[in-house]
Amino acid sequence: MKPLLDLLTTFRPHFTKGGRFGAAEPIYEATESLLFAPSTRTPGAAHVRDPLDVKRFMSMVMVAVAPCVLMGLYFFGIRVLFMIAVSYAAGGAVEVGIAMLRKEEINEGFLVTGLLFPLVLPPALPLWLVALGSAVGVLLGKELFGGTGRNLFNPALVGRCFLALSYPAALSGNWVMSCTGLWGRTLSYVDARTTDVVTNATPLVMAKKGVILPIDDMFLGRTAGCVGETSTLAIIIGGVLLILVGVANWRTVVATLGSFTIVAGVLGLVFPETFGATPVLWHLFAGGLMFGAFFMVTDPVTAPITDTGKWCYGALVGALTVLIRNLTGYVEGVMFAILLGNICAPVMDEMVVRFRLRRLRNER
Amino acid sequence: MKHPGGYNLSLAGRPSAQVDVLGDPAELHLPLRSRRFSFTDICVADGDVVSAGSVIARDPANHGVPLLAPRAGTVRTESKDGHIVLSDLGDRPACADEALVDALPGVQARQRLLDMGAWQHFADAHTGALPDPHGAPRAVIVHTVSFEPFTARGDALLTGAFSGFIRGLGHVQSLLEYQPIHLVVPEVNSALAKRVLDAVRGFAWIKVYPVPLRYPADNPRLIMRRLGGFAADAKHPVWATDVAGVLAVDRVLTDRLPCTERTISLAGPAAPNPRHLRLTPGYPLKALLGDAFGSDVIRVIDGGILTGETLDEGQLGLDVECRGLTLLPEATERPFLGFLRPGTDRSSYSRCFLSALAPRLPERLTTALRGERRACVCCTSCERVCPAGIMPHAIHRNLYQDVLEEAERLRVDLCVGCGLCSYVCPSKIELCSELCRAAETIRQETANAEGAEA
Lengths: 364, 454
Known about the structure:
The complex is a heterodimer.
Chain A: H1 2-11, H2 25-35, H3 54-76, H4 79-102, H5 109-119, H6 127-141, H7 155-166, H8 168-172, E1 175-176, E2 198-199, H9 203-208, H10 215-220, H11 232-244, H12 250-270, H13 272-275, H14 280-285, H15 289-296, H16 307-327, H17 334-359
Antiparallel strand pairs in A: 1-2
Helix pairs in contact in A: 3-5, 3-11, 4-5, 4-6, 5-6, 5-7, 6-7, 7-17, 11-15, 12-15, 12-16, 16-17
Chain B: E1 19-21, E2 28-31, E3 41-42, E4 49-50, E5 55-59, E6 65-68, E7 73-76, E8 83-87, H1 106-115, E9 123-124, E10 139-143, H2 154-158, H3 162-175, E11 181-186, H4 191-200, E12 206-211, H5 220-227, E13 238-242, H6 243-253, E14 262-267, E15 275-279, H7 285-289, E16 298-302, E17 309-310, E18 324-329, H8 381-385, H9 392-400, H10 404-409, H11 420-424, H12 431-453
Parallel strand pairs in B: 1-15, 10-11, 10-13, 11-12, 14-18
Antiparallel strand pairs in B: 2-8, 3-5, 4-7, 5-6, 7-8, 9-13, 14-15, 16-17, 16-18
Helix pairs in contact in B: 3-6, 9-12
């Protein structure tokens, strides 16, 4: 691969300050460092470093999301890939533009946001809305706060929240009916114009009307729903991998799902008319709860940094989801629950940190 | 006793227990500076002929700790900047004062330790500075282990000097009144550890303190914290020393010989034959390291790989405090799509590489940063690895925003500077140096405030 590196090196002068494409330096840097690990040396102690870097860290999330993408491809067709491409292009443009303005390097965190975002959208959503949502999510959710690592809210969910509030009709319709067979819809292109398979009803909508889908369909994902959210099986495979490699914290996942189960179960017993219409297990597999619990709540930047904080945060998100799903006009509450949790995360941290510092009080 | 945090790096290039004794070179270049000392008070003139073990210079800021002539020879003070050159080398030091009575009174013994070069093996467990030899410590911590790669191994020093070590412990005790000696031993079932435990079993004043085999469980400040009850103050510090220190005490008080030799490790991934060396301070580094020293291919580190400092190229000879020299290849390679590789050959603190499924293999590391600098992603690896129980990532956030008060509240002063947070950080943030700098600023500000009050 030496010739490629040499080629890149010959282009370098054009992309540095004063060169012909000086403003595009971040693009050059990103390309070069993506292909070739930098040979930067440690400035002093510690003289050696662990092989893990942010690129690897973020690639782990992408690997873990892969089963969900494949399931989306199977159930909702080749258009899923177009949605991902559009999301990357629009969000990437914002990311690169801001990096050039700030004269900073392009951050790998965007690779995750750009992939997670289309997975929480209805499969037949117009592509221009995907682009708009991705761009707004990256801009408002991340760049305004200073980029990856400094954001308060999950950028993918900020983008989705923006779309859900601005284009409620588009976001509550545009679902695609499930399919069967060996190849499913892998080779077909399904969008809003293919009216025979586009529907308005997700399992949660139907449940409000009293129609409860079988639980095995919910588990495998043979239902209408967001691109990556329908198949609980795929989410668990990816999510467990994410926990095993240590990128996601198991405490947050357990707390979210546990609190959801307990709150839904207890409220279902106490107020069977409001909360007891559907079994708790069914609710666990419905909508975006599993996807949110494994891939959104676990975002280390927007979750609390302390372990105790993570337990509280997960518990809050789980409980809020139950309440929003059953008591408000929305059929799905995971997105709002996580965004509300994001707001509370710093406060939870502060309380835990105070307690921990009290224990260190007499140390020196 | 709980030991949170810590991590053992899996690295190729550990020194073997073998100790090679090096002969005398043609001349010695004694540096006037070392990590803690600065020998500004020069006691000889250019051209003087000195005997082995005589005082060449002293450091007035550190209780007058001496720089001894390792061999007899002719002194030249001007020829090399920042060094004293000793040429026409002659005899090794001979036994001083044969006529001395067996047991010296405490005060004299302490002065003798200082004058004959054994005292520089002691440190204040809290600050790492040289303690006052005439002070009254609360306790003494004696290390038999050094977990940092690649500093001189305690077992290499102990082999062949076992009885001297036990005798030295007795001498250390005679310097004290009733204060205990905490002997730090590794939690292993090795023959050597068993021998040490058997030998000290009868001594009531030795308290054995077992530590897990995990860097930096041997850090004196951490041990001080774990032992508790040492609300350290300047008047009653805790002394820390190691095997080399106890052997030096034995040499001075039993054999009545000045400490003019050191055992250091010469190890690291770039060392052809990682081992221990016994040599005199001032040994020319060029002769020791060959072309590696001062080259762009190999980094020479004074001390271990996590806390050591890059050796100054202007330094000509081995200084009096060196515990080991680590040779680390400089990074030159740029692996193609490195982050996508399965990583069976990488040993990582995280579980993001396939090597997590196999036992950790020692890896031949370089000075590569292995990634780009990024903003913190709150992975909290630094917190899990931190032996001091603080949150380096949270402190970093506040230091990034220049809020020193908040960093102080988060107890940045507890940082022991072990370097593990910098090692594990996937965003490649220089956490350790950042934290150490902040802790130092806070310490100075506190001292200034106290000075203003007084």
